[in-house]
Amino acid sequence: MGVVSAAQAIQMAKDAGVDLVEVSPMERPPVCRIMDYGKYRYQQAKKTKDAKKKQTVIHVKEVKLRPKTEEHDIQYKTENIKRFLAEGNRVKVTIQFRGREIAHPTMANRVVDKVMERIEGLGLVDQRPKMEGRRMIFILRPAAASKP
């Protein structure tokens, strides 16, 4: 429309039966737009609602093991890990040391190797195994999510 006086712009908006909305007040002259503001707000709310609906939330599930965990228990826990990875969640695997177990980190490495062997192809290591106090922690992510 070009540069128009404020009174003329208000009259044009009234004639059209819509609102005069100030888009950029800091400009000289201020930039205004003739539109239905209620409809505009409704469309913006709808867009944000749709965007919220489409987003996926990734949870970090935790599985706890010990260096002396038996074979069947490791098998059971790896089934849970597979299920968590299939759901698209990350998995934090914690190996808790008690007492003198801390002196034998190779036992924990064997447990890590067994877990990694069983989840081959389903998950990838997001964070390598590292010691934090009396715990060895590593994080797995779904293999499908790693593809660019």
Description of the structure:
With 148 residues, the protein is an alpha+beta fold. The protein folds into two domains: 6-51, Roll (Ubiquitin-like (UB roll)); 60-146, 2-Layer Sandwich (Translation Initiation Factor IF3), CATH 3.30.110. It contains four helices and six strands; from the N terminus they run αββαβαβαββ. It is rod-shaped, with a radius of gyration of 29 Å.
List keywords for this structure.
single chain, 148 residues, Ubiquitin-like (UB roll), Translation Initiation Factor IF3, two-stranded antiparallel sheet
Write the layout of secondary structure elements.
Elements: H1 6-16, E1 19-24, E2 31-35, H2 37-54, E3 60-65, H3 71-86, E4 90-96, H4 105-118, E5 123-132, E6 135-142
Parallel strand pairs: 3-4
Antiparallel strand pairs: 1-2, 4-6, 5-6
- Cα-atom Rg, whole angstroms? 29 Å
What's the number of extended β-strand segments?
Answer: 6
Q: Could you estimate the helical fraction of the residues in percent?
A: 25-40%
Sequence stretches where pLDDT stays below 50 over 5 or more residues: none
Strand content: 25-35%
The largest sheet is:
4 strands, mixed
Question: Could you state the CATH homologous superfamily of the largest domain?
Answer: Translation initiation factor 3 (IF-3), C-terminal domain
CATH class type of the largest domain? Alpha Beta
Summarize model confidence as the mean pLDDT: 88
Structural class, judged by helices and strands? alpha+beta
CATH T-level fold name of the largest domain: Translation Initiation Factor IF3
Global geometry: rod-shaped
The CATH architecture category of the largest domain equals 2-Layer Sandwich
Output the strand order for the largest sheet: 3-4-6-5
Q: In total, how many domains does the architecture comprise?
A: 2
Give helix and strand order, one letter per element, not per position.
Answer: HEEHEHEHEE
Total of helices = 4
Q: Give the termini separation.
A: 46 Å
